Amino acid sequence: KYFEGEVDIPAAAGRSSVVSRDVADQHGLIMPSLMRVFLATDNIAIYNPVQQSDEQFARQATDYVNYIVMKECGGYVQFRSAFHNGLLMGNGPIKHWWDDTPQYSTESFSGLSDDSYTMLVMEPDVEVIEHDEYDDPAGVPQPPMMPGMMPGMGDPTGGMNVGMDEQMMPVMPKLHDCKLKRMTSSGRLRVMALAPEDLLLGRGVLSLDEDSVRFVAHRWVKTRSELIKEGFDPDKVDDLPSYSSAKTDSPEAIARDREHLYEGDTPPDRSTDLIQGYECYVQCDYDGDGVAEWRKVVTAGEGSKTSLLANEEWGDDLPFSDIVPDPVPHRWRGRSLFDSMEDIQKIKSVLLRQTLDNIYLTNNPQQYMLENSVVNPEALQDREIGATIIEKTQGAVRWDAVPFVAEKTLGAMEYMDGVAEKRTGISRQTLALDPSVLQDQTATAVNATQSAISTKVEEYARNIAEHGGMQRVFAKILKLIVKHQDRARTVRLRGQWVEVDPRAWNADMDVTVNTGLGSGSRERDLNYLMGVAAKQEQLIMQLGPTNPVCGIDKLMDTYRMMTEAAGLKPADRFFPEVKPEVMQQMAQAASQRVDP
Description:
This protein is an alpha+beta fold. Helices cover 37% and strands 19% of the residues. The protein has 17 helices and 17 strands. The strands form six sheets. The chain has a five-stranded antiparallel beta sheet with strand order 7-8-9-10-11. A three-stranded antiparallel beta sheet has the order 6-2-12. A hairpin with an 8-residue loop joins strand 9 and strand 10. The chain starts with 21 loop residues before the first helix and ends with a helix.
């Protein structure tokens, strides 16, 4: 409510009811910086080898996982939603899992020959839905094929009449019209930002690590059709009651205006009825051996009509991570911008209302009129600019000017802005309200000011990267891909088509979240990288492009980082990767060159 401009301070009748939007203002200033920190580069996370055999796979895993997350899972939208929730509510949960629900597509063909139709239906994962066969009007009759004959063989009966006249009739070529259902995918990675109120935790949980959680659940709303596609019992799904948002929505969802999301939406048929359910992960001793194991339990429905859809042992990691920009020690819930700005928004809303009321009264002073002394009193009641007031008695109408004292409240509002700056790290320089703030200062002083401004945002970014957030997300995603992707895929990475088979990767490779670029201004990043590139160029000039200290491949890496800092993507289009075999060829050519 505070983010949307509502405060729990009633306004007096006839007075100003405006609300200061401090929570939204601070949120809007921090979000772009966070998005740039993590999304200024194509590789949000970098995988590092933990064994010598991982060297050849770490680079490919980095490119492939980032491609899957950002391109196929809508990473930008999901991470932005999680950052938004983390700043505003303290926690921004993310769910990452392998969705093994089959994906189908329908295709129609007409006029297929016998051979084309046979080849098509023999492909794996293809099911014929409709089929119509008819003679080819342009076809030439073909001699019959006797049992045991191969194309090009003679008559196995030696020309003898064996009483098979009907089978010896010429065969007309056929054409086929068909409609096929093809399974395009047997599973895929999914990443989704959850609404904070839809993640349910057991009491005493401090983080989403498997060692500290005993119960965690995801509350969802799906259609009956979706549940049946996921493999749940159709009879149980059909008995579930429809979802009623008016009865079950949480206060957070209602404040987000989600109570109107399904209101008045009549589904076209029963298959699209909405069902509310819970996907629970619980530690319990199910087999009675005295040791608690993880189990996945899925329930749906409401009240007495709740039904158990699944109860199975769970062998993977928990499919949840948490974006916490400002964590609080020994507590799961992080500190949000609302926690920091609630009292400031209340105070400034009151001061702003009083300021506007004073301005209204100053511009429209109180009026006095002697009774029965004005011919047209309606001109005073419904005042119009330039209207004539006709007095019976001179001086019958007068105005009592209200003194303007709003400058006192404006000073108080500035003081509260200073308090907000101390709490959030966002200052007037960030707001860019005063153009003279950074004038007549040295470049060093300006850089120091900008560094101080970005300090709090950098802390937020570091917490998001490492406090069970982005680092955990990409570590769990790597494990999911290695475990569940059962075939090689051909994708376009770094401008080239590459066949990727993650089954040989080490699922426990280290993860580093790339927050190097974007933590400051683009100009500062470029200046730093230009200095690094200059030193590398100097070494290459002195020692050669294949020297063991800093080769041409390292310089290309720096050039790509400079390109990304400038906002130009993909960087490989400008400075492609130098492959090891190319470096080896350059070294051989350099060794064979004759010394003048």
